[in-house]
Amino acid sequence: xxxxxxxxxxxxxxxxxxxxxxxxxxxxxxxxxxxxxxxxxxxxxxxxxxxxxxxxxxxxxxxxxxxxxxxxxxxxxxxxxxxxxxxxxxxxxxxxxxxxxxxxxxxxxxxxxxxxxxxxxxxxxxxxxxx
Length: 131
Description:
The structure is a single chain. The protein has helices at residues 14-22, 34-41, 47-66, 81-91, 106-118, 126-130; strands spanning 2-7, 30-32, 71-75, 95-100. The protein is of the alpha/beta class. A four-stranded parallel sheet has the order 2-3-1-4, sandwiched between helices. Helix 2 packs across helix 3 (47-66). The longest helix has 20 residues, at 47-66. It is globular, with a radius of gyration of 15 Å. The mean pLDDT is 90. InterPro entries: P-loop_NTPase. This is UDP-N-acetylglucosamine kinase.
């Protein structure tokens, strides 16, 4: 069993890397991406929906770890739960793989987010990107 993490700042290209490098070989693997969860049922502009999907993601991670199901997750590494999840996964015998996707500057990340929004994707504030 494997816990694969796609980590990086907003706008770094986590989903792009997932789709271009990982998906074809792992399309049946469970996936946790709150942005995708929100997009399936509503608008990224709905902060209540974002919170609801974030809570659901936490439940799914716990469920997959308890049931020892391989899965992948996207994260900005901004919360404390990611460390707990990695420790739990290691304790349960998961092979943990972290792919960190970076950009050369906050300005690059902001521009990538602006391009994503123009293409119909979700946005994020400049201040959140800088954090």
